[in-house]
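Retro notes - structure team

What went well: the batch runner handled both jobs without manual restarts.
What didn't: labels got mixed up in the shared folder, which is why I'm recording both outputs here explicitly, each with its sequence directly above its tokens.

Job 1
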Amino acid sequence: MTDDNRTLISRFPYLKEDFAASLVVFLVALPLCVGVSVASGAPAELGLVTGIVGGLVTGFMRGSSLQVSGPAAGMTVLVYEAIKEFGLPVLGVIVLAAGVIQVAMGLLRLGRYFRAISVSVVEGMLAGIGLVIIAGQLYPAMATKAPDSGLDKIFELPGAFWDAFGDTGALASLAVAAGTVAVMLLWKHTPSKVRALPGPLAAVGLAMLATFALDLPVATVEVKGLLGSIQPPPLSAFGELAGVGLLGTVVAFTLIASAESLFSAAAVDRLHSGPRTQYNKELVAQGAGNMVCGVLGALPMTAVIVRSATNVQAGARTKASRVLHGVWLLLFAALLPGVLAYIPIPALAGILIHAGAKLVPVRSLAGLWREHRGEALVLAATAVSIVAVSMFEGVLIGLALAVVKTAWEASHVKLEVVDKGVGPIEAHLSGNATFLRLPKILDSLESLPQDRPVRLDLSGLHHLDHACRTALDNWAARHSAAGTEPVKLVTAA
């Protein structure tokens, strides 16, 4: 071994493992980057740009050493709505502004607070996104245009399927999409040597081969070239930040991208025994990547659990693997962009349908319903709200429901009544008396005999809010006015 080799090994002791892992992650990321971009209504190359930035910018920064960033299926719906409402040039402004806020939150050490977001809300958010992705991608799978609203995407599916069965082109497109999903589902059952090729790449490759060999009449990806697709936002687009609608979209991008990245980091930490995620630094790294993506007019980035888990499972040991995966994406985009033109759009739709289905926690929802029905209801309500209204409003509804549920559970109160037949009736309140439990408390107290004195003991309460205290005082006054001895209130010393 030469001195140069010894020096290289000493500086990069896990270069072999990281190099091999980077190739696997690249092969997984390539079709997903393109698929997310096309589904978002953006040029295919912009997804590659975001993946490259995720590797070469965010990949170099501190935070989570094994987490891989790029365009995410979980942001597809929000990006599509933003492009439809504000236009592609303004997308860069939105992503840039979101990145600035992420960096600021990281520097202010707010990253850890994202861990306090209800898991049910996050899972409900992902489930809602998954349902919209599935419904939305079934239309390009049938070579037709998807409706705008989430509900229309679902309600108009039967008619779209009916029309497809009378159209040869639509049937061919649907067959390619179905075949892609089937390959994705069955790939894990193939021999281990075959599984060395990632499922998404194999599915897209087989779809390309079938389309070419059978000369199928299906649409393929439009290619503009990497440099032609990069369109920095014009200065005039920054004036849109004065609008309330755009600011709401920026907030939605920031919160959802940050939550998805940090929850992904927590999941990745459970997959390996290496250094733990530094949440504030990871938020800064994600923000820096989004700032660069915004300047380039590309898609927003988040940490992506599929790529991150693949990175860990492929044997990566340091951040070198995710940086190298960005290098391979850059080389592909620079040297082989024409290959994208051969990718069938229904194959990408199939990839996204499979990804969307994995976002819907069908199995865990059944167990959650048996053990924590309140959490299950929050999850379901968040998902339905996202489908019925929009991403931002759906998440806000979910957060509001989670707060209400927590407040309801935290306001547990118990009233014990002891009546010995003679003397005053003893009533003992314990727990947390808040306005949420006021009807229950008053119903119980008002059912006590009006002709007997009452001793109400409040010393067992941990918390008594103003509404409850006022209501108890009013009840005591009414009960005492009936001609019996005044109600005696006993409070903690």
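Job 2
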Amino acid sequence: MRLNGVDDRLERHQYPTTSEEIIAAHGNATVELANGSERLGDVLERFGDQTFENPEDVFTTLRAGVCHRGVGRRFYSDRDPTTDAEEGPSPVSF
């Protein structure tokens, strides 16, 4: 996810602030995703009314709230366990 300069604007925003205030000021800005883009306001609206103490709170919410186009290949995990028919890596204990 790329914030396309939105991160600078969010860092200059006055905190604490609400999601409503951020949407009013920056809601039409777009974030670039792996497969497309999405409006900042659309992402924040998924979480309802919130209060943010600092820009990092907003960034965390944005990372958690982007649609499926922001996560790369859907339903893919390289951390799935091997099946009984597969030979996987040997477990290592630390």
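One thing worth noting from job 2: The beta strands are 17-18, 30-33, 36-39, 51-52.
We'll revisit the folder naming next retro.
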